[in-house]
Specification:
Belongs to the ABC transporter superfamily. GO terms for molecular function: ATP binding; ATP hydrolysis activity; branched-chain amino acid transmembrane transporter activity. Keywords: Amino-acid transport, ATP-binding, Nucleotide-binding, Transport. The chain has one domain (9-235): 3-Layer(aba) Sandwich (Rossmann fold). The longest helix has 16 residues, at 170-185. It is an alpha/beta fold. Helix content is 36%, strand content 25%. The strands form two sheets. The protein has a six-stranded mixed sheet, with helices on both faces. Strands 2-1-4-5 form a four-stranded antiparallel sheet, with helices on one face.
Length: 245
């Protein structure tokens, strides 16, 4: 893997799984304050990587460091306090709580911090319009914006997003892409796990390809877009035409 000179996140030899099943094997990469995408077919271990980074799946071996601090083996809440926030696949919102109530749960920890509920509403104006609506009454795109906004209220150094574009209209994906670039510009790193190559390359220049629990290759988004053979080999898309932007 090509790596940044001074990594914010440093993952070395990470192995993790469920019960007797090993899913991640010797995963190694690093990143700075940037957006990086992990792409691959379904069932390759991408979500397990997310879960291992945020503490939902304890690593069997290897290490995970954020800003030089070892985090592997810690409980999820301690990892969150250390600076990694998570936008899970499926959003995991509370159906009966309003947008405002979701954000207010974390508001007391945001005083004098960059990300407050008001800042989230400025990033996602649609949420401000829907602040009194319950989670179950939101569209898929609005739910995803709320899930991202909730993660930002932890004011961490790294946001991990699992399949953020899944099931969303192109206009909503545009909003999320803009949000990712804004976060990086403001000094927050973003690790995006995606199956949607179009969304992944718009969010991140670096593309890490996961195959059977291993990071097999790294490309730039432009390289993947220009190479239908690579798209077919690693992502299972057609070979006739490259996936466009």
């Amino acid at each position: 893997m090509r790596e940044t000179r001074e990594p914010l996140l440093d993952v070395r030899g990470l192995c993790a799984g469920y019960g007797a099943s090993m899913v991640l094997e010797d995963v190694t990469f690093s990143m700075g304050v940037e957006a990086v995408a992990v792409v691959g077919r379904n069932g390759m271990g991408k979500t397990t990587l997310c879960d291992a980074l945020v503490g939902f799946v304890p690593p069997r071996s290897g290490r995970v460091s954020l800003r030089g601090e070892r985090l592997d083996g810690r409980a999820p809440e301690r990892i969150a306090r250390a600076g990694i926030s998570y936008v899970p696949q499926g959003r995991r919102l509370f159906p009966s709580l309003t947008v405002d109530e979701h954000l207010s749960m974390l508001a007391r920890r945001t005083r004098n911090k960059r990300w407050t509920p008001q800042a989230v509403y400025e990033l996602f104006p649609r949420l401000a319009e829907r602040k009194k609506h319950g989670g179950a009454a939101l569209s898929g795109g609005e739910q995803q914006m709320l899930a991202v906004g909730r993660a930002l209220l932890l004011n961490g150094h790294l946001v991990v997003m699992d399949e953020p574009s899944e099931g969303l209209a192109p206009t909503v994906v545009d909003v999320l892409v803009d949000a990712v670039h804004r976060l990086v510009d403001e000094g927050v790193a973003v690790l995006v796990v995606e199956q949607n190559l179009r969304a992944a390359v718009r969010m991140a220049r670096r593309q890490l390809v996961m195959v059977s629990g291993r990071l097999e290759a790294e490309f730039t988004g432009d390289e993947l877009l220009a190479r239908p053979d690579l798209q077919h080999r690693y992502l299972g898309v057609g070979t006739e035409e490259p996936v466009g932007r």
